[in-house]
Amino acid sequence: MKKPTKLSRRDFVHTALGAGVTLSAPIFMGATAKGQGKTFKIGLIGCGGRGRGAVAGALEAGKILGFNVRVVATADYFKDRAVRAGKQLDVPPERCFGGASCYRDLLETDVEIVLMATAPLFRPLHLEAAVNAGKHVFIEKPVAVDPPGCRRVIAAGREAEKKGLVITAGTEMRHDWDHIKTHQAVAVEKALGKLYAGRVSFCIGHMFWSRPINPKSAEDLVRSWQNWIALSGDHLVEQHVHNIDLANWFCGGHPVSAVGFGGRPRRPAGDMYDFFSVDYDYGEGVHIHSMCRQVNGCWNWVGHDFVYEKGHTNGNDHPKPQKSPIPADLPQSPSSHIQEQIDTLYYVNKGRPVNQARAVAESTATAIMGRISAYTGRQVTWNQIMAAADESPDLFNLTLKPTAEDFEKGTVEIPKENVVPVPGQK
């Protein structure tokens, strides 16, 4: 059968939602009716574009696997957005929840699988609550904005394993079959020999900062979360985590240290940087150069290059392993955004606990380590932020404000616009 054509997240969401999520299952490899008659109840927390895209993917994944997938509850900080999404998905208004504690209301319903697509700040708190409630979870990346948040996610993942729950993550390249097979060939089977070095990049034009926001309330911050360090983690964390995750995956784990720099020559809104350049030291002489930028009128590149003793790979161009790690009965989708939902439903149906929380939390922490280095001018180590509480308590305990709990308690302090970190200052 001809291999499916790649489909971007943006293209899929536009097509699926614009057509009422009616893509045809026969275009997918491995489409089957074996699951006919089985129903899974989905709950959505975070009803923006990313959340609606996750729902579209879950509904399409249900078609591919032959399951009856129903969205039975929605939740969003802004209730009107939850209601609008619910109306589109045939969810009654009384099961559409709003406010900072909306996730608690949703978790009290009969949902079995929760899709989490809120601002990254809220994800550790929401994941903890979902696991405590015994729900399976698909969680978007990144999963935190600071080191304590990453550790909370890892702890929630361990608890989920004990309960036999599935946690999958929106680190989409880990769901893409070419990336999976290439990783198996070069990182596991060593087809190209020893890894020497690499580079990862997410350099694009500006996205969310065309005008000053002048926030006056917590609601203003949530509406413009992409512009604020405390809510997004900065674009190094929120966006570039995809590429950093691939570096961790191909290097076999997180780096031992980071040294980086960055700046803000153009951005007029929020408090984030425009660009970052970070050297990640993975030990044994292996360094990965990470760069990301959101500035118009510049050279752009989004990609990866890993150099080995016998050649190099971009992460998905060597899909010829001796043994594929992909289950033989797992269907393949043309889009990793649908595939991540196929994977979620597949493992929930199998009753096999899956914990992708640790990997995505470590990739998030890797990005945060680079951000802290760029903001401060310091070399930052993994031990300082994730493993050794007494080594650098200021980094280990670094908690961005406002916190997710501040939004629930009504104790949010509004950050100042255009006040940014300056390296070299204590």
Describe this structure in words.
- The protein is of the alpha/beta class.
- It folds into two domains: 10-173 and 326-356, Rossmann fold (3-Layer(aba) Sandwich); 175-325 and 360-409, Dihydrodipicolinate Reductase, domain 2.
- It is built from 16 helices and 14 strands.
- It has helices at 9-18, 49-65, 79-88, 102-107, 123-132, 147-163, 177-188, 218-223, 229-232, 235-238, 241-251, 336-350, 357-376, 382-387, 393-396, 404-409, and strands spanning 39-45, 68-76, 96-98, 113-116, 136-139, 166-169, 195-204, 257-263, 275-281, 287-294, 301-308, 311-313, 354-355, 380-381.
- The strands form two sheets. It has a seven-stranded parallel β-sheet, sandwiched between helices. The chain has a seven-stranded mixed β-sheet with strand order 12-11-7-10-9-8-14.
- β1, α2 (49-65) and β2 (68-76) form a beta-alpha-beta unit.
- α11 (241-251) crosses α13.
- It is globular, with a radius of gyration of 21 Å.
- Mean pLDDT is 92; it is low at 1-5 and 10-33.
Lay out the secondary structure.
Layout lengths: L8 H10 L20 E7 L3 H17 L2 E9 L2 H10 L7 E3 L3 H6 L5 E4 L6 H10 L3 E4 L7 H17 L2 E4 L7 H12 L6 E10 L13 H6 L5 H4 L2 H4 L2 H11 L5 E7 L11 E7 L5 E8 L6 E8 L2 E3 L22 H15 L3 E2 L1 H20 L3 E2 H6 L5 H4 L7 H6 L17
Parallel strand pairs: 1-2, 1-4, 2-3, 4-5, 5-6, 6-13, 7-10
Antiparallel strand pairs: 7-11, 8-9, 8-14, 9-10, 11-12
Along the chain, the helix and strand elements come as HEHEHEHEHEHEHEHHHHEEEEEHEHEHHH
CATH class of the largest domain, please?
Alpha Beta
How many β-strand runs? 14
| Approximate strand percentage | 15-25%
What count of domains describes the coordinates?
2
Query: How helix-rich are the residues, as a percent range?
Result: 25-40%
Unreliable stretches covering 5 or more consecutive residues: 1-5, 10-33
Structural class: alpha/beta
Widest β-sheet, arrangement of strands: 3-2-1-4-5-6-13
CATH architecture of the largest domain: 2-Layer Sandwich
